[in-house]
Known about the structure:
The protein is an alpha/beta fold and 308 residues long. It is built from 7 helices and 17 strands. The protein has 2 domains: 4-117 and 242-307, FAD/NAD(P)-binding domain, CATH 3.50.50; 120-239, FAD/NAD(P)-binding domain, CATH 3.50.50.60.
Amino acid sequence: MSKEVKKIDLMIIGGGPAGLTSAIYSARAKMNMLLIEDAILGGQVRTSYSIENYPGFKNVEGGKLADLMEEQAKEQGATIDEFDFIEKVSLSDEEKTIETSSYIYKPKAVIIATGATPKKIPIENEEKFLGKGIHYCAVCDGAIYTDKVVAVVGGGNAALEEALFLSKFAKKVIMIRRHDYFNGEVSTLQQVEKNPKIEIMYNWDLVNGYGGEFLEYLKVKNVKTQEEKDIKVDGLFGYIGTKPKTDLFKDYINLNSRGYIITDENMRTNIKGVYGAGDVREKEFRQITTAVADGTIAALDAEKYIND
């Protein structure tokens, strides 16, 4: 059977902070809009245990903040479709087509807010131990390591924050850092350094992971002395950066060398009526606040584009 074709004003692809903010603004503008998300609404925010830098909240759990954003969007009248997968897209100045597993949409404008996914830990046995000792979400999987030893690899705020979260469960948290510094916020690093359950291994690089059915130990190498040694662990959590989710759009949208969408200050891409917002966009800083700002600007400009 052929799929039903639906003509709408605006399609928002992605349900993180940028997408949900765009949904709030476009719904308030009474646009015929749809936000589509192929996973759980909230994006990476939902996996953050504690957020302390979002205005209006001294401290809020990521899941709670994501729920509030979703609730607000729906109360404003936003139409949201979770778990409908996009099969293919076609984007041009004249026409936009988004085909999902259920429908074919013909929107006048599109906001791409698909975000980014964690980069895989670059070791030989990553796939072997994925879900069996190797993880990328402490909020999702941290509790199973209660009173056990876990390692965290990464050098940014995410790694620091997740180490703090894991210390609530684990007996010990070992941070593996190939440099002698972190790129995260000073206050967060200070919390990590003061935590008696967290050990930081500066200038050590992860070589591989070994074990039977489950991960049992890690081989690490000192980047200065070339010394190698094994560390007994029960789990490993990776936070070495993210990869933008842009594969669907690469044949139409201009991307930079790392795969992020290139936009102007109004979130416009190289195609009229198509916008990029949030972590999927090329920019220097990726924070919840910057994603929300992107989503606001994209929705307002899309409304102007549609009306014109």
